[in-house]
Fold this sequence. Notes:
- By secondary structure, the protein is mainly β.
- It has 3 domains: 1-115, Rossmann fold (3-Layer(aba) Sandwich), CATH 3.40.50; 121-348, no CATH class; 362-611, no CATH class.
- 11% of the residues lie in helices and 39% in strands.
- The chain contains 10 helices and 42 strands.
- The strands form 10 sheets. Strands 5-2-1-6-7 form a 5-stranded parallel beta sheet, with helices on one face. The chain has a 5-stranded antiparallel beta sheet with strand order 19-18-21-16-24, with no helix packed on it. A 5-stranded antiparallel beta sheet has the order 28-27-30-25-33.
- A hairpin with a 2-residue loop joins strand 3 (64-65) and strand 4 (68-69).
- It is globular and about 80 Å long.
- The relative contact order is 0.10.
- The mean pLDDT is 94.
Amino acid sequence: xxxxxxxxxxxxxxxxxxxxxxxxxxxxxxxxxxxxxxxxxxxxxxxxxxxxxxxxxxxxxxxxxxxxxxxxxxxxxxxxxxxxxxxxxxxxxxxxxxxxxxxxxxxxxxxxxxxxxxxxxxxxxxxxxxxxxxxxxxxxxxxxxxxxxxxxxxxxxxxxxxxxxxxxxxxxxxxxxxxxxxxxxxxxxxxxxxxxxxxxxxxxxxxxxxxxxxxxxxxxxxxxxxxxxxxxxxxxxxxxxxxxxxxxxxxxxxxxxxxxxxxxxxxxxxxxxxxxxxxxxxxxxxxxxxxxxxxxxxxxxxxxxxxxxxxxxxxxxxxxxxxxxxxxxxxxxxxxxxxxxxxxxxxxxxxxxxxxxxxxxxxxxxxxxxxxxxxxxxxxxxxxxxxxxxxxxxxxxxxxxxxxxxxxxxxxxxxxxxxxxxxxxxxxxxxxxxxxxxxxxxxxxxxxxxxxxxxxxxxxxxxxxxxxxxxxxxxxxxxxxxxxxxxxxxxxxxxxxxxxxxxxxxxxxxxxxxxxxxxxxxxxxxxxxxxxxxxxxxxxxxxxxxxxxxxxxxxxxxxxxxxxxxxxxxxxxxxxxxxxxxxxxxxxxxxxxxxxxxxxxxxxxxxxxxxxxxx
Length: 615
């Protein structure tokens, strides 16, 4: 949690002041009681001279931290330095603990100087409590052609929060602060809408393409800021896309960035997540599975946003080849934007994990317990109207092969055609046209198939692209696999977002629009082995103030799916009464469902789709 505490924009400003004081103080002895010295040193804007790093843990003495061997804290006064920096946010505690160990006449600094004000904390007695740093970033833009809207709800109230508020800071493309403000969300389940056009008008701002920092305060139960982010074309621009929240943590590598198809411009939006500049050449791009790295030769200022055009970087690559982004921990999950036929669509990259190794146990899973094992379900809309293209993506640094197949199901859960895609190498460029395989609308499931050998790590991902054959509009999403609806567990699967596995319940969020573009979702009941014959699913329509104003029940057959349109389920007049910001909570306590949400302007043929989020 030290990372989030130190990268909050307000804390980063204070850390810059502290680091300059430490720089001027000469050699510094660092006492590291919480094993955070490497995180702290990586985030310092001004270099300091470190004379030694000290610990009170006798078992850690001699271990390497920040390139130095840890020393026992009892020897700190023997180092000949006059300045001690204790990496703890409570100055009084450190002063009491170290009073007899400080060098004579020495000065003690701590991290208390970079603390956020008390009124911004959800848990006042424990500064590094995870609920104090429920933060996230959102790609945020408002121009003459495109605007964005962040949508979520006060889901913290169901855990007991009573006075939720958001601290918001908007950065422009150069990383300069455009505006800082608060957004009060006192109501239980109250809708949250942050509209770029409204913000720009209310505060008299110029056009911007940047990022919005979000800090949820006064919360309980849940430390992740989840949202849906809509991008809409204004005027004659027919763009429409919806993607879900960014990952709030930085990573070294990201994947499922597609190379451009003919007539496409693929832009990677690189957004500096920190108050430190990103040196030129410290981030690179490479074709997936190849080790020729092309550096991004531009320095990025703190919080700056930069567009990198893939055709400029890789003029010889084309869809379905994939690109790997080696971000060096400088950014949270980036967005990419594809422009085609004067329309844009936005999707996100996924974190490529460094901690996963191939797991031979997956190939030996007992089918009695786990059936077909790990599944990645995805919608297959009417194949006469829409193309559905699936591109498997390696999502672990160690993975060298992808042994996969696709199984198709209709809406009633009847199994249809299946296609073994092969034991694909890491650098493959194989996309399957699932619409040519399926016999009608329903859903597909990507899963492991070891008939030709291969590796599995349980982190099976794919990019799924949808194309409207009539209008040319397109949308895409990406996600990973899980074991679904089994009572036996394997390494945290079936996954549960609340509580320990098996995760056999559902709570999903869906916007509910009373006018075009209407919201919809494809709700899938995937089953790895066998479970209940039908789901017992409730749809609760909430007004913008959080009040439940309508309730409907549906039953989805096992391995089946349903397309849900709130304006059809509840009626347009009811949605109008619910107001701007109305939403649907999809709840099922009997099984784990998986959903994809979207928006569609039926008269114009523009649409979007991405996987749903729950809380």
